[in-house]
């Protein structure tokens, strides 16, 4: 927008050069227990080194902290790591790692708002750590896949055994992966996108008006 | 730090005090825009010098968003908490110095096209 302005105009702004068009941004969440490799997975597929964004929280409304003996502060910082994948010029995918600690559940509502879907990263040595994330996404109706991060000293479960342990039913796919490996990370994400598409199509069919 | 009020500023307080000093104590943006993490911010205009209520951090954001950026990247690159960045963005929106872009509410068909595009893009990586 170029307009000629006479001297003494009252406007407090100056037009900037026409900015490049804003891209469409979409997001996928990477959830799971503390230390399961969420940031590692994000970093493996992201085109940038994962960035960190922080939210300041007051203690009010927070659940019981699991760090017994540590003096409570009145303000807490929750850090969220995220990465970026440019799908094409004008379409960008963001991957957000959810805060690992249980007491930051309410942050998940903000994070999952508008998300396409989620990856629940699981560690076979601590499978129960992934229950809360599985429950959360099931309750929200947000499509998700379970990525089983194969740690060297982890147990060698099959995906069927994982499915049964997490009580997943027929729905969400289970993918064995190494969160450090880019090809594996890509596999997890493409499996998720296929699942999201399938869920989307099924929902369309079930809500389509009868002819 | 010395001077009046110094007794309130220890190491622990430092970053918190700085954050809320930037927003002049405000914890909510001046506008109703929620500034979701992936809402894209574009600089629309530059302020005239000496515009009231526009500080260096506001100018940093305007500089950064000459190339449109999502809220999360602005916060990460400025090293400021989201709550603070949202207040600063609210000021800028109030002064009409930025525009915001959220993914438009789509029809089921265009959503399917979008999902397919993301899948194809990931497979092509």
From TrEMBL, chain A:
Lineage, highest ranks first: Bacteria, Bacillati, Actinomycetota, Actinomycetes, Streptosporangiales
Organism (species): Actinomadura soli
Protein name: ATP-binding protein
Homology family: Belongs to the GPN-loop GTPase family.
Keyword Nucleotide-binding: yes
Keyword Nucleus: no
This protein's UniProt keywords: ATP-binding, GTP-binding, Hydrolase, Nucleotide-binding
Pfam families: ATP_bind_1
GO molecular function: ATP binding; GTP binding; hydrolase activity
CDD domains: Ras_like_GTPase
From TrEMBL, chain B:
InterPro entries: DUF742
Source organism superkingdom: Bacteria
Protein name: DUF742 domain-containing protein
């Amino acid at each position: 927008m170029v307009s000629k302005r006479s001297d003494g105009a009252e406007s407090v702004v100056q037009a900037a050069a026409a900015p490049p068009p804003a891209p469409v941004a979409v997001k996928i969440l990477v959830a799971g227990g503390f230390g399961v490799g969420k940031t590692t997975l994000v970093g493996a597929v992201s085109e940038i080194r994962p960035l960190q964004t922080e939210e300041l929280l007051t203690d009010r409304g927070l659940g019981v902290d699991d760090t017994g003996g540590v003096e409570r502060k009145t303000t807490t910082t929750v850090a969220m790591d995220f990465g970026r994948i440019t799908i094409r010029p004008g379409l960008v995918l963001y991957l957000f790692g959810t805060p690992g600690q249980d007491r930051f559940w309410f942050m998940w509502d903000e994070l999952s708002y508008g998300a396409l879907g989620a990856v629940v990263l699981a560690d076979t040595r601590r499978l129960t750590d992934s229950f809360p994330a599985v429950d959360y996404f099931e309750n929200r109706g947000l499509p998700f896949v379970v990525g089983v991060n194969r740690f060297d000293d982890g147990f060698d479960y099959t995906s069927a055994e994982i499915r049964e342990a997490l009580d997943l039913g027929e729905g969400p796919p289970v993918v064995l992966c190494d969160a450090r490996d880019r090809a594996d990370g890509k596999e997890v994400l493409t499996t998720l996108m296929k699942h999201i598409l399938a869920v989307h199509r099924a929902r369309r069919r079930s809500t389509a008006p009868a002819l | 730090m010395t001077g009046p009020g110094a007794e309130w500023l220890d190491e622990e307080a430092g970053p918190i005090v700085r954050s809320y000093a930037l927003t002049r104590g405000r914890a909510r943006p001046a506008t109703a825009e929620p500034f979701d993490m992936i809402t894209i911010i574009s600089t629309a205009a530059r302020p005239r010098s000496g515009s009231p209520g526009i500080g260096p951090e506001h100018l940093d954001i305007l500089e950064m968003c000459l190339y449109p950026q999502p809220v999360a990247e602005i916060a990460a690159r400025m090293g400021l908490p989201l709550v603070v960045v949202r207040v600063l963005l609210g000021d800028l929106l109030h002064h009409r110095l930025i525009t915001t872009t959220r993914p438009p509410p789509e029809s089921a068909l265009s959503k399917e096209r979008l999902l397919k595009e993301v899948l194809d893009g990931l497979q092509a990586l």
